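Researcher: I'd like a structural prediction for the single chain below. Treat it as a standalone chain; there are no partners to consider.
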Amino acid sequence: MSRVLVCDDEPHIVRALKVVLREAGFETVTAETGEEALDRAAVRPPDAAILDLVLPDIDGIEVCRRLREWTEMPILVLSAVGDEEEKVRALEAGADDYVVKPFGPRELVARLQAALRRAGGSAADPVLRADGLEVDVAAHVVRVDGGEVHLTPIEFDLLKTLLRHRGRLLTHRALLTEVWGAAYEHDTATLRTHMSNLRRKVDPAGERIRTDPGVGYRFA
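Model: Treating it as a single chain, here is the predicted structure.
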């Protein structure tokens, strides 16, 4: 049973999430503050985390950033704020997804399950190599010119997809559908943010991942 850390200072939200997650087969551990969430995650690392953006001490963005210093577990951010700037801030801090309150229980569970699947990988998947990059899909390890690089699950999936189709132009819609699912096929802002983070880590010189403006990306 997957264990999910839920951090929110609104008791009714926490109660609702505990019920929804329990019915979906998840075990939950809760925290009311950012510091408490970080402590609980450190003592017994969960399989995923759901974080509210507005907390009484440090905000969810900072919690996400500090978790990303040592874990690749899927992180979903919850907030009543739905503007694009806040979404980008959360994604840049390492969040895998962003859910706006009020949310549908089925949607939240579906997004959490999708994030866990992306993080899981498959033992049958190969090691992909190209242009100084090595992606061990089963071990979820990426090396750039021999040195190991930390990627979030979303960044890992994007790189894996580009490598499997290297040389081929993948449209924004194709990448969004492959990595996030059909419900995200028009969310190009999310894709741009994650691609920017990925490039910074594996292609700072801009020689591996090419952009066709307004169309998509390809691994050269």
